[in-house]
Design a protein that fits this description.
Number of strands of chain A: 15
Radius of gyration of chain B: 27 Å
Distance between the termini of chain A: 29 Å
Strand order of the largest sheet of chain A: 7-8-6-5-4-3-2-1-9
Number of strands of chain B: 33
Helix content of chain A: 40-55%
Shape of chain B: globular
Structural class of chain A: alpha/beta
Strand content of chain B: 25-35%
Largest sheet of chain A: 9 strands, mixed
Number of helices of chain B: 13
CATH superfamily of the largest domain in chain A: Aldolase class I
Radius of gyration of chain A: 21 Å
Largest sheet of chain B: 8 strands, antiparallel
Number of domains of chain A: 2
Oligomer: heterodimer
Distance between the termini of chain B: 58 Å
């Protein structure tokens, strides 16, 4: 199997929590120094158990990694480099909140070896930013892109969000055009999802707003795909678009390709082809465990073959290439077509999916754009077959 | 000190849902001191979950409140709680028959509402003394003068006596006991040689048997005496008599005028009928108290356990529930689609829902109910006459020469501005206007004949909505009339599901078929193939919907930390299928069966 591994580092701190976010983070920034000590300890402890797998992607996510000082980021990166063997051409991504940085900060990130920036722009519209309760302004969003360019990053990704309650075709079109004018190499366009337990969820239940009409939302989803494809981006995952294959997020593609990954920090997940484990979802608890020289693991699960199959379907159907039929057979010892004949027929006859057996490319099963909008219920259909 | 009849008062509280009856009852209990504040559970009188959630009282509970007047006289004030829904109007009438007075509760911000009126008329029929109480005076939206005007105009009561209270804050509540003592007369009762008492409620105690809630009109009763129920002459020996003070307080003796309970080792709850008269073989009262009525079920529906192996549990649960709810009747039934179950009779749709909820909640049995039906009278071509209440038993139409359905005489009291709306709704439900009369300048009583089947469906909800809650509704069964009945069947994926079949008037069939198909489409989850849903009369399809295999839904983000959670969600969805019933090749959830019972 894969002989490379990805590393994810979770920086669970935010100046302010956004209303829609259900990722783990804390607004008590005073924990940062202790957290960094613990992180270093975790990396040290786990690298000893690690064989000589090469690390080809590193991702600083959050939370808000850009609340760390440059010095802190540099030390952290050095710790990783010291403990693992990193490919010389590794993709090293850093998530940036435009409200936390200036020109120098981004320049310094470039200097210490970050190769890719993911900018949490969300929108160039004032009302949208206010609804999402982002800490940055429209101006700061635009500036961040400019600073990133000036710093010499050519692999820049912008995060955008659509489908807010008051979102219209025009509003989203403006955001997309503004982003396209900046010609980023990568775009993540997320439909607003109201996650249970978030303040947004609560507002919705208290009827403070009415969610967007589903028809409009699906229209936006399809338009996003078409607009960006015409502008030269490939729609390589449900919410992700890149200028050509080389600009895809190698790190995130790893998740969708079932590549092993090691996650460090509170709530971070790890996967080694058989076992998935995740850390304690709480900074204080995380620190305590490591102080006692224990791994801060909250839970570990060994995946059964069926579970792996389900994950593969769930993840690969998100992507442009879909399920590689040869790969499937190799992994599970059975052909995808025979295992799921009925569902495949159903999906294909509804023009939601296709089996392609080209001569150059590997044979594969993938979803059409129409199929992608129905992703969850298609995955459910496969899932039902798995238990029968 | 022996209690003097002059120092007893028996009263009820009449109120519209939400006007604060339960809160006020709690306050009065608190004020009487029979329970410590610490033990005070919110809204003690409505102890069943369902009652609390819906804000309605189904089983009435009674409480005897001691009160010492400023002059030192000790009183016993019996507060008799009444159910608050038309399905239970008979229980209300029996409770009111045990009182001499009633507090009528009016919300200071909402004024007089429908139910208040309906129960007021019941109360007036029993010659009760009415004391108006304006509640919720603490609300910023309270309009006390306006509420008083309504008391004068809509209720025709003197608002000078109206008490102003806030049951929530307790303000003014202390004036209630003195007013009850002053305005409501003591019971008229004789302590003579005969014994006569009225059963207004009962409940079952697992250790002591049936506990009879009664009001004594003549004579007195002690432990050891023999009693007799007049409807069936069943005799028992009294084991205990006492008062309800949240818990049962045994007493040596209860006298004429008092309200309390008796325990007599009654294991057979069907011996105890609400409205029946209790007497004693050696102190026989001769004539029973008037107004006794056997509770008659008017709506029938079959209940099936979602999991076939829960049938035994359902059997046990029904047996236990029956001990607490004498009006419930049931017998074995079976369905091709759903297997073994029970055919049950109910007082009305609310009663049906309450029974279903109690079975599911208290006895943990998941149920599927079939469409409720009334009893139809079928005359066959060979002249035989048969009563059926189950669509499954409906024969080939060629064998029937005539069908008759039960009608009711409905009396609807509304402010006259709603007259047009009421006429329209009654017409919609196949009603025929009989007459109407003005009761006051602006309030009128309208009389209709309506098919019971329509009333059972959702007439009451519609009436409430078009009269904005001001319409009060009471009815009595008024015999059978000819009708044009059809059997409406539903086919899911081409298969007829007998449990969904309904008997319905031909004119209504198409609309009902369409709505029901739509609802089924919403409720039945997507399966791996297209599922046609059809409504049919005989061989003719009258409505159709299709469930496609997939629906639009996509998870926007799925990264390293999301994978396990999303996979588990998928795994859980499979387990969630337990409450589904496999009919042919389609899994139908319990909610789909319920959805066709209502159009809203």
């Amino acid at each position: 199997m894969s002989d490379t591994v990805s590393i994810y580092i979770h920086v669970p701190f935010c100046i302010k929590k956004c209303v829609y976010c259900d990722f783990y983070s804390d607004t008590q920034l005073s924990f940062i120094p202790e957290y960094l000590c613990s992180l270093e300890k975790e990396i040290g402890l786990r690298s000893k158990k690690q064989t000589d797998q090469r690390v080809d992607t590193i991702y600083f996510g959050g939370g808000t990694p850009s609340v760390l000082t440059i010095h802190q980021v540099e030390t952290l990166l050095k710790t990783v480099q010291k403990n693992f063997s990193i490919s010389p051409d590794a993709e090293i991504t850093f998530e940036v909140n435009p409200g936390t940085i200036d020109e120098h900060y981004l320049a310094a990130l470039k200097d210490i070896g970050i190769t890719r920036l993911s900018l949490g722009i969300q929108s160039f519209n004032k009302e949208k930013l206010a609804f999402l309760q982002r800490i940055h302004s429209v101006r700061q969003g635009r500036d961040a892109v400019e600073y990133a360019r000036k710093a010499g990053f050519d692999n820049i990704s912008l995060d955008l969000m659509y489908g807010l309650p008051f979102e219209t075709k025009e509003l989203w079109h403006m955001d997309l055009t503004t982003a396209l004018q900046m010609a980023p190499s990568h775009l993540s366009c997320y439909m607003l999802t109201i996650e249970p337990g978030t303040p947004l969820d609560e507002h919705q239940q208290n009827k403070k707003f009415k969610p967007i009409c589903p028809d409009v939302l699906w229209d936006l989803f399809e338009k996003t795909s078409r607009t960006l494809e015409t502008s030269g981006y490939e729609h390589y995952e449900i919410s992700n678009f890149s200028r050509g294959k080389k600009n895809r997020s190698a790190h995130n593609s790893g998740y969708w390709n079932m590549k092993p990954y090691m996650g460090f920090g509170p709530a971070a997940h790890s996967y080694d082809n058989d076992i998935r484990s995740w850390n304690i979802r709480d900074v204080a608890g995380y620190i305590c465990k490591l102080e006692a020289e224990h791994l801060p693991v909250e839970e570990t699960e060994a995946l059964t073959l069926d579970q792996k199959m389900l994950e593969m379907i769930m993840l690969r159907l998100r992507t442009l290439e879909g399920i590689d039929l040869e790969d499937f057979k190799r992994r599970f010892g059975i052909t995808f077509e025979s295992r799921f004949e009925q569902v495949i027929d159903q999906v294909c006859s509804a023009s939601m999916g296709k089996i392609e057996k080209g001569t150059i490319e590997e044979p594969r099963f993938f979803l059409t754009l129409e199929g992608k909008t129905h992703l969850n219920s298609i995955v459910e259909a496969f899932s039902q077959r798995l238990v029968e | 000190m022996k209690l003097n009849i002059k120092n007893i008062r028996n009263f009820s509280i009449i109120a519209h849902i939400d006007h604060g009856k339960s809160t006020l009852s709690d306050r009065l209990i608190q004020l009487s001191g029979i329970i410590s504040d610490r033990d005070m559970k919110e809204q003690i009188l409505d102890s069943m979950d369902i009652e609390r959630e819906r804000g309605i009282t189904i089983k009435s509970q009674t409480v005897s409140l001691p009160y010492t007047a400023p002059d030192g006289t000790e009183y016993l004030l019996n507060l008799i709680d009444t159910p608050g829904h038309v399905d239970f109007s008979y229980e209300v009438s029996r409770a009111l028959a045990s009182c001499e007075g009633a507090l009528i509760l009016v919300d200071a911000s909402q004024g007089v509402e429908a139910q208040t009126l309906a129960n007021l008329y019941l109360a007036l029929e029993h010659n009760l003394e009415i004391v108006p109480v304006v509640n919720k005076i603490d609300l910023p939206s309270a309009q006390i003068e306006w509420a008083k005007e309504q008391i004068e105009e809509d209720l025709g009561l003197n608002s000078d006596n109206a008490l102003l209270v806030s049951a929530k804050t307790g303000k003014g509540v202390e004036n209630i006991f003195p007013a009850v003592v002053k305005l409501i007369p003591p019971p008229k009762a004789s302590e003579g040689d005969v014994f006569k008492a009225l059963i207004f409620d009962s409940h079952y105690d697992a250790f002591r048997g049936t506990v009879v809630h009664f009001r004594i009109f003549e004579g007195s009763i002690k432990k050891g005496q023999r009693i007799q129920f007049m409807s069936n002459n069943a005799e028992y020996k009294v084991e205990e008599v006492g008062l309800f003070q949240i818990i049962r307080q045994p007493q040596d003796e209860l006298i004429a005028g008092q309200v309390g309970y008796l325990i007599a080792g009654i294991k057979n709850i069907s011996d105890v009928k609400i409205g029946d008269t209790v007497t004693m073989p050696d102190k026989h009262c001769g004539k029973p108290k008037g107004g006794f009525r056997e509770p008659t079920p008017v709506v029938f529906s079959s209940m099936y356990p979602v999991a076939a192996d829960d049938y035994e549990e359902l059997t046990l649960a029904l047996e236990k529930l029956k001990l607490n709810d004498a009006s419930l009747i049931y017998e074995k039934d079976s369905s091709a689609a759903l297997g073994f179950g029970y055919r049950c009779g109910f007082l009305g749709l609310l009663h049906l829902e309450v029974v279903q909820e109690r079975l599911e909640r208290e006895y943990d049995v998941s149920l599927i109910l079939t469409s409720p039906s009334v009893m139809y009278e079928l005359t066959y071509t060979d002249g035989t006459v048969k009563i059926i209440d189950n669509p499954v038993a409906y024969p080939d139409p060629a064998e029937i020469s005539k069908v008759r359905e039960p009608f009711i005489k409905a009396s609807i009291i509304v402010p006259d501005r709603y007259m047009g709306n009421v006429m329209q709704v009654c017409h919609e439900f196949r009603g025929v206007s009989k007459n109407y009369q003005y009761l006051t300048q602006s309030r009128m009583e309208m009389k209709f004949e309506l098919p019971l089947a329509e009333v059972v469906y959702e007439f009451y909800d519609r009436l409430k909505s078009v009269t904005q809650g001001y319409g009060s509704f009471d009815y009595e069964i008024a015999g059978y009339q000819d009708t044009n009945l059809v059997k409406l069947d539903f086919l899911i994926n081409g298969e007829r599901v007998d449990a969904l079949s309904q008997l319905i008037h031909r004119d209504k069939a198409e609309a009902r078929g369409r709505t029901a198909c739509k609802k089924l489409r919403e409720e039945i989850p997507r399966q791996q193939f297209k599922i046609p849903i059809q409504a049919a009369i005989g061989g003719k399809i009258i409505a159709r919907e299709t469930i496609s295999a997939f629906r639009k839904d996509v998870t926007a983000k799925c990264y390293g930390g999301d994978i396990s959670r999303k996979r588990k969600l998928l795994e859980k969805q499979k387990k969630g299928k337990k409450r589904m019933k496999m009919v042919g090749s389609v899994e139908i959830p319990q909610s789909a069966f319920l959805s066709v019972l209502k159009s809203e």
